[in-house]
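Quick review question:
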């Protein structure tokens, strides 16, 4: 049975929320370059955006060192997570993942008939790769790995993950959700996308919603073997849900290294400030490689969210191993100060 559960509460969408620290968005986006691209392209909106899509895909393929046959685009990576879940599991099978992890793909897989085989994270909240390899059986249709992992924010060691992928992908495709990878610092901040180039049956999924600040503009992509892309495309179409304006915005943002660097730097500063502040209050945050962090709270999660909401702060609450945990996204420094002040009133 699953270790992690989330409290779903309307509080997070309440109008009194001033500091929206719920959904791991980028408070600095969209980049100015992307906003201008939307304005400049909107008058072309009477036409389908095939040519513009081809340009964006060429840019991504070039940067990733793959061909456009290795790419599938979606209106957000959620769309790709769902399509993969539907196509891989429409005839049953099981999915192996960590618990806790990001549940989007797994929930859809379960709805179309899959069995979920959750594998508890290790004591430092990384993926227990040995246990995951052992959980793979003849009915396993996909292994889902979120790295860095949401909701805990941790990174699984790059070398270990690479070795796992090389071995286990011989039996089953391995889907690696790297939504937060570009925000991570240090030697472990390594994408597994070169494995795709090297021919392994690995799928790497990315999004424009996080480092590129375009959550509401909806673009994501996955890199996989052309046969895998063909399998998913045989049932569903890639890229059709993306608007012309979003494609132009994405093309601009993708090349906007300055914006991405600025986001990374400011996110890190917000994270350092928040980590120090919550530690000073006696909390013990899990070291995070992302734009959110998690720590145990000594209060029922629903009650906690209500009390934070009453002070204008939106965040999230989970129970993991029967412990109440808060997950807070990194906002601007002012928003993090609001979060810290609100949290102080509860301590
Ligand atoms: N994957 C992970 C791990 C996420 O946390 C999220 C969103 O928070 C997504 C995928 C989906 O993002 P989007 O559909 O905006 O690309």
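Suggested answer, residue by residue:
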């Amino acid at each position: 049975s699953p270790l992690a559960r989330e409290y779903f509460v309307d509080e997070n969408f309440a109008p009194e929320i001033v500091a929206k620290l719920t959904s791991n968005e980028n408070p600095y986006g969209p980049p100015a370059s992307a906003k201008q691209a939307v304005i400049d392209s909107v008058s072309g909106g009477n036409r389908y955006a095939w040519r513009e899509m081809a340009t964006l895909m060429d840019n991504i393929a070039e940067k990733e060192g793959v061909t456009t046959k290795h790419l599938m685009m979606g209106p957000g990576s959620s769309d790709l997570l769902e399509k993969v879940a539907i196509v891989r599991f429409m005839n049953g099978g099981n999915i192996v993942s960590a618990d806790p992890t990001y549940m989007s793909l797994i929930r859809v897989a379960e709805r179309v008939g899959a069995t979920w085989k959750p594998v508890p994270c290790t004591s430092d909240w990384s993926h227990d790769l040995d246990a995951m390899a052992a959980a793979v059986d003849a009915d396993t249709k996909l292994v889902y790995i979120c790295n860095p992992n949401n909701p805990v924010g941790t990174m699984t060691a790059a070398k270990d993950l690479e070795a796992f992928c090389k071995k286990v992908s011989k039996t089953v495709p391995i889907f690696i959700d790297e939504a937060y990878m570009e925000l991570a610092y240090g030697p472990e901040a390594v994408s597994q996308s070169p494995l795709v180039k090297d021919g392994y049956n690995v799928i790497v999924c990315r999004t424009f919603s996080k480092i590129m600040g375009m959550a509401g503009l909806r673009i994501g992509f996955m890199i996989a073997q052309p046969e895998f892309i063909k399998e998913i495309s045989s049932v569903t179409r890639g890229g059709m849900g993306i608007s012309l304006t979003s494609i132009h915005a994405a093309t601009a943002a993708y090349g906007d290294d300055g914006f991405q660097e600025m986001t990374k730097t400011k996110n890190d500063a917000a994270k350092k400030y928040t980590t120090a502040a919550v530690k000073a209050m006696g909390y013990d945050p899990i070291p995070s490689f992302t734009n959110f962090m998690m720590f145990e709270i000594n209060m029922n999660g629903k009650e906690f969210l209500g009390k934070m909401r009453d002070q204008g702060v939106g965040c999230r609450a989970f129970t993991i191993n029967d412990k109440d945990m808060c997950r807070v996204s990194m906002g601007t420094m002012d928003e993090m100060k609001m979060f810290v002040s609100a949290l102080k009133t509860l301590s």
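Why it works: The radius of gyration is 20 Å. The chain has two domains: 4-28+258-346, 32-254.
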